[in-house]
Amino acid sequence: GESVGLHLPTLSVQEGDNSIINCAYSNSASDYFIWYKQESGKGPQFIIDIRSNMDKRQGQRVTVLLNKTVKHLSLQIAATQPGDSAVYFCAEKEGGGATNKLIFGTGTLLAVQP
Amino acid sequence: EPEVTQTPSHQVTQMGQEVILRCVPISNHLYFYWYRQILGQKVEFLVSFYNNEISEKSEIFDDQFSVERPDGSNFTLKIRSTKLEDSAMYFCASTASTDTQYFGPGTRLTVL
Q1: Which of A4, A75, A77, A79 could disulfide-link to A19, CB 3.0 to 4.6 Å?
Q2: What pLDDT score was predicted for residue A4?
Q3: Which one of B6, B103, B107, B108 would you mutate to disrupt binding with A, by most A Cβ within 10 Å of its Cβ?
Q4: Residue of chain A nearest B88, judged by CA positions
Q5: Whole domain around residue B57: which residue ranges?
Q6: Are B111 and B89 a contacting pair, CB within 8 Å?
């Protein structure tokens, strides 16, 4: 079946650097994408979302880029801080209203070195 | 800021026993979900609930599972006869529309 996957299981960055976390998706019918942050022992925390009619969306220190041509999603974190250390998941939802379920990727562990 | 809450944070049970996991979704939300995450694996969809009925369920959500909204605030997941492989983190989520889902902190279920 179609699924969402992440290229890098672990990303180690220095404090203050920018981080880029990547995600590949295979369901061309997906029209809504979300990035979640999960800290140890906690539930997924919403970071930012994007619809398929957009290719870029910015939040506070975060930017999500969507490339529908190659079915690729990325999360950019500016000036990465130790508090950003967590597992980051991308998730997708198929369009058309047939389903509201989110399909999650496998996650990337972001480790911020002070 | 409103949050989804879940109780208990950790539930230990014997195989074959029934467990009920409880969730209080965000108050004005209309769509409710349960997901689970087996240790080290991705988050998996179990079931969605809207207008007092199940709107969608996954293959995981077999006859041993049920959901209920017994009153205006709680949303529960019941597993009738737990199996070892039911051990996982169970997350409740809710949303006002069909988009952004907000997750609770999870209940860690350990089946012995």
Answers
A1: A77
A2: 54
A3: B103
A4: A41
A5: 5-96
A6: no
